[in-house]
Design brief:
The protein is an alpha+beta fold. The chain contains six helices and eight strands, in the order ββααββααβββαβα. α2 crosses α5. The longest helix is centred in the N-terminal third of the chain and has 21 residues.
Length: 209
């Protein structure tokens, strides 16, 4: 089955690409046109970690609503035939945005580049370290990073093959529990809200002991 999935950025977020240049020390992941996206591999890892947290909370609460065994099953980590495919998430209305920016970049090659597009959805944040001895800025510590602006929404699909209702419950609760992504979370970055719009969280909370 294909499950629609959404992520809303409640604060700026840095999903690093591992790259930088003479202008930006830490770049964010983006496509060839400059549109930022949420990588599938990172999302799957975050959902898995969140699902394990849900299982731990259920155990502490004395309920078997979601167990670690359920999590392993839903994510295809057991000998079952369940397969979970997470796809990259793109900005809402991505196909239309991509076509528009592609057209403008071709028509106005000297005026609009992928960097200009990226600048439209992101901001640059500067940080420095303080020398504990002098109480002033540590020499050579100034650096910057690009962050995707808060308020943006990403969507896409997650495919669950050979799964059951319990597997769906694990994924829905994991999404509801997932609150942060990316770097510098202790600095107020990366707060997110995730959901499967087809499923209401209150309908997932029944069952168990």
């Amino acid at each position: 089955m294909k499950l629609d999935f959404e992520i809303e950025l409640l604060s700026p977020m840095h999903l690093g690409s591992g790259k930088g240049d003479v202008v930006i020390d830490a770049e964010v992941v983006h496509d060839e046109y400059g549109l930022p996206y949420f990588p599938a591999k990172r999302l799957k890892g975050l959902l898995y970690e969140s699902a394990l947290e849900v299982a731990e909370m259920c155990q502490c609460a004395g309920t078997d609503m979601v167990t670690k065994k359920d999590v392993e099953h839903a994510f295809g980590k057991t000998e079952s035939n369940v397969e979970l495919f997470v796809h990259d998430l793109y900005l809402q209305d991505y196909e239309n945005l991509r076509r528009q920016w592609q057209y403008l970049q071709k028509k106005f090659k000297k005026l609009i580049s992928s960097r200009d597009v990226l600048d439209a959805y992101t901001s640059i944040r500067y940080q420095t370290e303080i020398d504990n001895k002098t109480g002033t800025k540590a020499k050579g510590s100034l650096h910057n990073m690009r962050v995707v602006d808060g308020g943006l929404k990403f969507d896409g699909t997650i495919e669950l093959l050979n799964g059951n209702d319990k597997d769906v419950k694990v994924l829905v609760l994991a999404a509801a529990n997932l609150r942060y992504a990316g770097a510098k979370r202790n600095r107020g970055f990366g707060e997110i809200a995730c959901r499967f719009p087809t499923y209401k969280i209150e309908n997932m909370l029944g069952g168990g002991k």
